[in-house]
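User: quick one, fold this
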Amino acid sequence: MPIGITARCIGLEATIPDSYFVPTGCIGKNDGLDGVRMERVELRHLRYFIAVAENGGFGRAAQLLHVAQSAISEQIRDLEAELGASLFDRSNRSIRLTAEGEQFLVDARAVLAAAAKAAANVKKSRRGEIGTLTIGFFVGGTGRFLPAIVKEFRVRFPEVQISLVEMAPAVQHQALQNGSIDIGFTRGLPPTEAAILRSEHFVTERLYAVLLRSHPLAKRRNISMRELADERFVLNDRKYSPVVFDKVITLCSEAGFSPKIGATASVSSGVLALIEAGEGLAILPEGSQTLSTEELVFVPLADRTAFVDLVIAWSPQHESPVVRSFIDLARKRRRKPTVEIPGL
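Assistant:
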């Protein structure tokens, strides 16, 4: 089967079938020479030519390649006819390369190296060892585990190009569907998207009440939701983080009240800024502590259901060997669910 190979790829040795064609113009092309045609040059021609050039004669090349000397001579003549130039000076008993042959030797080696690399890369791609990977995440939801996983993955698969894209959970769900990200560290998927995407539980996060340090409850070891009935709440905008928003509303309902919503923000950092501005308190997952400041205090909620899950999600439609390699590593590094109540 013919394959396209460009001479700019270099390195890596591999066995390339002789029947593979080198595409027109890949080797020794000179637009100023009308006689240069590369329609029928195959990798076999290049291998024979290089063997003759490097071993100083047809006889030695034939022995090395385990091919009849007459076959090599015929292939070299065909190659020279195709190129419209003599590659060897045969006027003396020992042959030597012509000026055109010297140049062609450089290019022929580059093409064989490129072909070898192309073949090797196919195998690496099949094993998930080469390619690109785009990971969606949101600050405050990935803690310290994501950098550690990415670092280990880079060490194991140095030829995979990784990109990290910060986006809210709901935005990640859409990005996974349209293929703009390959993997998402996000909140649980709603039923409509769970039918399209795949996800696995990654970590369970305790929910915390986030207060100003001057708040009367700031020094408590834990707080129950019913103690917050008279407080104003700063919430994550449901459009961007529906799981956390709905969880807070549910916890308030279970505690017997409806929250007084003072403000909303699209990201957790905005929520914390509004708390510092005196707009109220918030209920946020454990990972948001990475965004905290000296003015704020995180106090764990005592309620038994005060936790949310973080999942790793991907689209089966866009799943690749690289995606599978990353998921396999993430599975080995994920934390076990932790839902115990501190201080009780």
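User: anything notable?
Assistant: The two ends are 69 Å apart (CA to CA).
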